[in-house]
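Sanity check. The docking grid for S-adenosylmethionine depends on where the pocket ends up, so I'm generating a full predicted complex first rather than guessing from homology. Inputs follow.
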Amino acid sequence: MKKDQVTSYWKKLEKENLDMCASPTLFRLLKINGAKFISKNVLDVGFGEGQNLIEFQKRGANIFGIELRKSKIKKILKNTKIKKSNFFNCDLNISFPRVKKKFDIIYTLDTLNYLTDKNQFIFFEKCCKILKKNGFFVIHYPQTQLINKRKSKDLFNYNISNNYKKSYFFGKDNPIIFLNKNKIQKLIKFYNTKLKILSSIFDINTVSKSNSSKLTINRFILFKKII
Ligand SMILES: C[S@@+](CC[C@H](N)C(=O)[O-])C[C@H]1O[C@@H](n2cnc3c(N)ncnc32)[C@H](O)[C@@H]1O
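Predicted complex below; grid placement will be based on this.
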């Protein structure tokens, strides 16, 4: 089943340690739309290496996180010296943790796309419950991936439309549950009495470790809780 594939895929990456830095797009998106960080409660769902939470902590926020991989919880505890009870180890395809706090900002980067369709709805529902009125909710997911199959020896011979083709989404072992237009529109429509879209923007990243053969285009959607 897809959800078992997700769990085993990430468990295999339990020991992987990536060098990451915080997402400028996330911080710019929130700031431009009026978010404040000092003394605010911020929850990162699927925080991975924790680079964005660490940036929020630097900016004065109280940080909280949810993660499937125990090693990532250990890592963030070591790096932030925050109390253990701020972090929840759970598989969101099985259940959402019991979180008693209310949050000013909840965000999830490249993680919603590892939840099954049903659990994506549950995720929205639970986040709405623990988000304060006027709180910010950010989702981010890969919109598409472009592949460059013809490797050029000339590093400067790059033209996105010539070199890259939209040919597939991610490697065969990656159990990504792609959020296509229909799915995302259903989610947005279902929650539109609670969440209002403020902005939607893109950023681009390379996922390949040592070459420039893949470009991922990610969509960010920023919502505000209206009731
Ligand atoms: C692609 S990584 C993104 C990490 C981080 N948000 C970032 O942007 O760098 C996806 C993260 O979600 C976590 N994850 C995947 N499936 C999950 C699930 N079912 N429940 C909880 N966390 C999950 C993984 O362990 C991983 O850290």
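Relevant for the grid: Residues 117-130 form the longest helix (14 residues).
Also worth noting: The two ends are 36 Å apart (CA to CA).
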